[in-house]
Amino acid sequence: MSLWDYIDWDVDEEMGKNRVRADRILKDFSDVEGLGEVLSGVLGLMDSEVYNRVYLASDLGEEISNFAPPSREYLFEHYKQDQYACTILRKPVLNLFTDNVILQHYLATSGTIGFVHHAYKGFKLSLKDLDKEYVVFERLMVLLDDFDSSVGFHPPDEDFYRKLKNIKWDKGAHKLYKKIRRIYRNVAVVKWVPDSTTFGNNEHFTLTFLAACNAVVHGRDKILPEDVVVANRAYLKLLNTDIEGLEL
Fold it and tell me: Structure pTM?
Protein backbone atom coordinates (compact mmCIF):
# COMPACT_ATOMS: atom_id res chain seq x y z
CA MET A 1 0.00 0.00 0.00
CA SER A 2 1.13 3.55 -0.65
CA LEU A 3 0.66 6.71 1.36
CA TRP A 4 -2.25 7.64 -0.93
CA ASP A 5 -4.25 4.67 0.40
CA TYR A 6 -4.36 6.22 3.87
CA ILE A 7 -5.79 9.55 2.76
CA ASP A 8 -9.48 9.96 3.53
CA TRP A 9 -10.57 12.41 0.85
CA ASP A 10 -13.33 14.89 1.56
CA VAL A 11 -14.94 15.09 -1.89
CA ASP A 12 -16.83 18.31 -1.13
CA GLU A 13 -13.65 19.96 0.12
CA GLU A 14 -11.71 18.88 -2.98
CA MET A 15 -14.49 20.09 -5.26
CA GLY A 16 -14.30 23.43 -3.48
CA LYS A 17 -10.55 23.62 -4.08
CA ASN A 18 -11.08 22.84 -7.75
CA ARG A 19 -13.68 25.58 -8.07
CA VAL A 20 -11.15 28.03 -6.63
CA ARG A 21 -8.58 26.82 -9.17
CA ALA A 22 -11.13 27.24 -11.96
CA ASP A 23 -11.95 30.78 -10.84
CA ARG A 24 -8.25 31.67 -10.87
CA ILE A 25 -7.87 30.24 -14.37
CA LEU A 26 -10.82 32.28 -15.58
CA LYS A 27 -9.31 35.41 -14.04
CA ASP A 28 -5.86 34.79 -15.55
CA PHE A 29 -7.25 33.88 -18.99
CA SER A 30 -10.33 36.11 -19.09
CA ASP A 31 -9.95 36.76 -22.82
CA VAL A 32 -10.15 33.08 -23.85
CA GLU A 33 -13.58 32.39 -25.33
CA GLY A 34 -15.42 29.28 -24.13
CA LEU A 35 -13.07 28.65 -21.20
CA GLY A 36 -15.80 28.91 -18.56
CA GLU A 37 -17.89 26.22 -20.23
CA VAL A 38 -14.91 23.89 -20.41
CA LEU A 39 -13.95 24.40 -16.77
CA SER A 40 -17.53 23.72 -15.72
CA GLY A 41 -17.39 20.45 -17.64
CA VAL A 42 -14.09 19.42 -16.08
CA LEU A 43 -15.39 20.22 -12.57
CA GLY A 44 -18.43 18.07 -13.27
CA LEU A 45 -16.28 14.98 -13.79
CA MET A 46 -15.95 14.56 -10.02
CA ASP A 47 -19.45 13.09 -9.77
CA SER A 48 -19.79 11.79 -13.33
CA GLU A 49 -20.88 8.15 -13.51
CA VAL A 50 -19.93 8.01 -17.20
CA TYR A 51 -16.38 9.08 -16.31
CA ASN A 52 -16.25 6.22 -13.80
CA ARG A 53 -17.29 3.72 -16.47
CA VAL A 54 -14.70 5.05 -18.91
CA TYR A 55 -12.02 4.66 -16.25
CA LEU A 56 -13.11 1.09 -15.52
CA ALA A 57 -13.02 0.30 -19.24
CA SER A 58 -9.47 1.66 -19.43
CA ASP A 59 -8.41 -0.89 -16.81
CA LEU A 60 -9.69 -3.93 -18.73
CA GLY A 61 -6.66 -4.38 -20.98
CA GLU A 62 -7.26 -7.05 -23.61
CA GLU A 63 -10.50 -7.99 -21.85
CA ILE A 64 -12.12 -4.94 -23.39
CA SER A 65 -12.65 -6.88 -26.64
CA ASN A 66 -13.56 -10.37 -27.82
CA PHE A 67 -10.82 -10.61 -30.45
CA ALA A 68 -7.06 -10.87 -30.53
CA PRO A 69 -5.21 -7.64 -31.34
CA PRO A 70 -5.17 -7.29 -35.15
CA SER A 71 -1.87 -7.59 -36.97
CA ARG A 72 0.00 -4.54 -38.20
CA GLU A 73 -0.76 -5.63 -41.76
CA TYR A 74 -4.50 -5.80 -41.04
CA LEU A 75 -4.55 -2.36 -39.43
CA PHE A 76 -2.59 -0.75 -42.24
CA GLU A 77 -4.83 -2.32 -44.86
CA HIS A 78 -8.10 -1.31 -43.20
CA TYR A 79 -7.19 1.92 -41.40
CA LYS A 80 -5.10 4.43 -43.34
CA GLN A 81 -4.64 6.70 -40.30
CA ASP A 82 -2.83 3.91 -38.45
CA GLN A 83 -0.37 3.64 -41.32
CA TYR A 84 0.23 7.40 -41.43
CA ALA A 85 0.68 7.64 -37.66
CA CYS A 86 3.02 4.67 -37.36
CA THR A 87 5.13 5.88 -40.27
CA ILE A 88 5.33 9.60 -39.50
CA LEU A 89 4.84 9.98 -35.73
CA ARG A 90 7.06 7.09 -34.69
CA LYS A 91 9.58 8.17 -32.05
CA PRO A 92 12.00 6.39 -29.69
CA VAL A 93 10.53 5.34 -26.35
CA LEU A 94 12.85 7.82 -24.60
CA ASN A 95 10.74 10.64 -26.05
CA LEU A 96 7.54 9.40 -24.42
CA PHE A 97 7.11 12.54 -22.32
CA THR A 98 8.15 15.09 -24.91
CA ASP A 99 5.92 18.06 -25.68
CA ASN A 100 6.05 17.07 -29.35
CA VAL A 101 3.24 14.99 -30.82
CA ILE A 102 4.42 11.38 -31.16
CA LEU A 103 2.85 8.01 -31.84
CA GLN A 104 1.83 7.56 -28.21
CA HIS A 105 -0.49 10.56 -28.49
CA TYR A 106 -2.24 8.95 -31.44
CA LEU A 107 -2.51 5.58 -29.69
CA ALA A 108 -3.83 7.17 -26.51
CA THR A 109 -6.58 8.97 -28.40
CA SER A 110 -7.52 5.79 -30.23
CA GLY A 111 -7.63 3.97 -26.89
CA THR A 112 -9.81 6.66 -25.33
CA ILE A 113 -12.40 6.22 -28.08
CA GLY A 114 -12.42 2.49 -27.36
CA PHE A 115 -12.86 3.07 -23.61
CA VAL A 116 -15.83 5.36 -24.23
CA HIS A 117 -17.35 2.89 -26.69
CA HIS A 118 -17.12 0.08 -24.14
CA ALA A 119 -18.42 2.27 -21.32
CA TYR A 120 -21.70 2.79 -23.16
CA LYS A 121 -21.97 -0.58 -24.87
CA GLY A 122 -21.50 -2.42 -21.60
CA PHE A 123 -19.90 -5.56 -23.01
CA LYS A 124 -16.88 -6.63 -25.03
CA LEU A 125 -16.11 -4.83 -28.26
CA SER A 126 -16.01 -6.76 -31.53
CA LEU A 127 -13.64 -6.40 -34.46
CA LYS A 128 -16.48 -4.73 -36.35
CA ASP A 129 -16.65 -2.06 -33.63
CA LEU A 130 -13.20 -0.89 -34.73
CA ASP A 131 -14.73 0.36 -37.99
CA LYS A 132 -17.08 2.68 -36.10
CA GLU A 133 -14.31 3.87 -33.79
CA TYR A 134 -12.08 4.58 -36.78
CA VAL A 135 -14.74 6.80 -38.35
CA VAL A 136 -15.15 8.66 -35.06
CA PHE A 137 -11.37 9.06 -34.78
CA GLU A 138 -11.03 10.59 -38.26
CA ARG A 139 -13.89 12.97 -37.59
CA LEU A 140 -12.53 13.89 -34.16
CA MET A 141 -9.15 14.82 -35.63
CA VAL A 142 -10.66 17.22 -38.17
CA LEU A 143 -13.99 18.33 -36.73
CA LEU A 144 -13.03 18.22 -33.04
CA ASP A 145 -16.15 19.01 -30.97
CA ASP A 146 -18.32 18.75 -34.10
CA PHE A 147 -17.27 15.13 -34.66
CA ASP A 148 -20.84 13.90 -34.19
CA SER A 149 -22.33 16.29 -36.75
CA SER A 150 -23.36 15.33 -40.27
CA VAL A 151 -21.06 17.82 -42.02
CA GLY A 152 -18.63 16.58 -44.65
CA PHE A 153 -14.87 16.60 -44.10
CA HIS A 154 -11.59 15.51 -45.61
CA PRO A 155 -9.82 12.81 -43.54
CA PRO A 156 -6.25 13.61 -42.44
CA ASP A 157 -3.56 12.84 -44.99
CA GLU A 158 0.19 12.35 -44.65
CA ASP A 159 0.82 16.10 -44.72
CA PHE A 160 -1.54 16.53 -41.75
CA TYR A 161 0.67 14.17 -39.72
CA ARG A 162 3.85 15.93 -40.76
CA LYS A 163 2.38 19.15 -39.44
CA LEU A 164 1.33 17.40 -36.21
CA LYS A 165 4.87 16.12 -35.74
CA ASN A 166 6.28 19.64 -35.95
CA ILE A 167 3.66 21.45 -33.85
CA LYS A 168 4.89 23.56 -30.94
CA TRP A 169 3.29 25.06 -27.86
CA ASP A 170 2.57 28.73 -27.36
CA LYS A 171 3.78 29.53 -23.83
CA GLY A 172 0.45 30.97 -22.72
CA ALA A 173 -1.43 27.98 -24.11
CA HIS A 174 0.87 25.54 -22.35
CA LYS A 175 0.39 27.40 -19.07
CA LEU A 176 -3.39 27.26 -19.49
CA TYR A 177 -3.25 23.58 -20.41
CA LYS A 178 -1.24 22.67 -17.31
CA LYS A 179 -3.58 24.59 -15.01
CA ILE A 180 -6.61 22.75 -16.39
CA ARG A 181 -4.73 19.45 -16.18
CA ARG A 182 -4.22 20.04 -12.47
CA ILE A 183 -7.99 19.89 -12.00
CA TYR A 184 -8.20 16.68 -14.03
CA ARG A 185 -5.44 15.15 -11.91
CA ASN A 186 -7.14 16.13 -8.66
CA VAL A 187 -10.41 14.57 -9.83
CA ALA A 188 -8.64 11.34 -10.81
CA VAL A 189 -6.68 11.09 -7.57
CA VAL A 190 -9.74 11.65 -5.39
CA LYS A 191 -11.86 9.17 -7.35
CA TRP A 192 -9.41 6.36 -8.05
CA VAL A 193 -6.29 6.62 -5.88
CA PRO A 194 -3.84 5.00 -6.13
CA ASP A 195 -4.56 3.62 -9.59
CA SER A 196 -5.15 6.79 -11.60
CA THR A 197 -1.68 7.42 -13.05
CA THR A 198 -2.01 5.35 -16.25
CA PHE A 199 -5.46 6.74 -16.96
CA GLY A 200 -4.24 10.28 -16.31
CA ASN A 201 -1.29 9.88 -18.69
CA ASN A 202 -3.59 8.55 -21.40
CA GLU A 203 -5.92 11.49 -20.85
CA HIS A 204 -3.00 13.92 -21.07
CA PHE A 205 -1.83 12.46 -24.38
CA THR A 206 -5.37 12.55 -25.76
CA LEU A 207 -5.93 16.20 -24.86
CA THR A 208 -2.55 17.22 -26.27
CA PHE A 209 -3.25 15.34 -29.50
CA LEU A 210 -6.64 17.01 -29.94
CA ALA A 211 -5.21 20.46 -29.26
CA ALA A 212 -2.51 19.86 -31.88
CA CYS A 213 -5.11 18.63 -34.37
CA ASN A 214 -7.16 21.79 -33.95
CA ALA A 215 -4.07 23.92 -34.52
CA VAL A 216 -3.26 22.04 -37.74
CA VAL A 217 -6.86 22.28 -38.94
CA HIS A 218 -6.63 26.06 -38.58
CA GLY A 219 -3.28 26.31 -40.36
CA ARG A 220 -1.12 27.05 -37.32
CA ASP A 221 2.23 25.61 -36.27
CA LYS A 222 1.64 26.43 -32.59
CA ILE A 223 -0.99 25.33 -30.11
CA LEU A 224 -2.82 28.44 -28.89
CA PRO A 225 -5.19 28.86 -25.90
CA GLU A 226 -8.23 28.46 -28.16
CA ASP A 227 -6.89 25.06 -29.26
CA VAL A 228 -6.71 23.99 -25.62
CA VAL A 229 -10.35 25.01 -25.14
CA VAL A 230 -11.53 23.17 -28.25
CA ALA A 231 -9.55 20.05 -27.30
CA ASN A 232 -11.13 19.92 -23.86
CA ARG A 233 -14.58 20.60 -25.30
CA ALA A 234 -14.13 17.75 -27.79
CA TYR A 235 -12.87 15.38 -25.09
CA LEU A 236 -15.73 16.18 -22.73
CA LYS A 237 -18.22 15.70 -25.55
CA LEU A 238 -16.64 12.36 -26.45
CA LEU A 239 -16.99 11.20 -22.85
CA ASN A 240 -20.72 11.86 -23.09
CA THR A 241 -21.26 10.22 -26.48
CA ASP A 242 -22.77 6.81 -27.10
CA ILE A 243 -20.61 5.83 -30.06
CA GLU A 244 -22.81 2.81 -30.75
CA GLY A 245 -25.75 5.12 -31.40
CA LEU A 246 -23.99 7.56 -33.71
CA GLU A 247 -25.21 7.65 -37.31
CA LEU A 248 -22.18 8.69 -39.31
Answer: 0.92
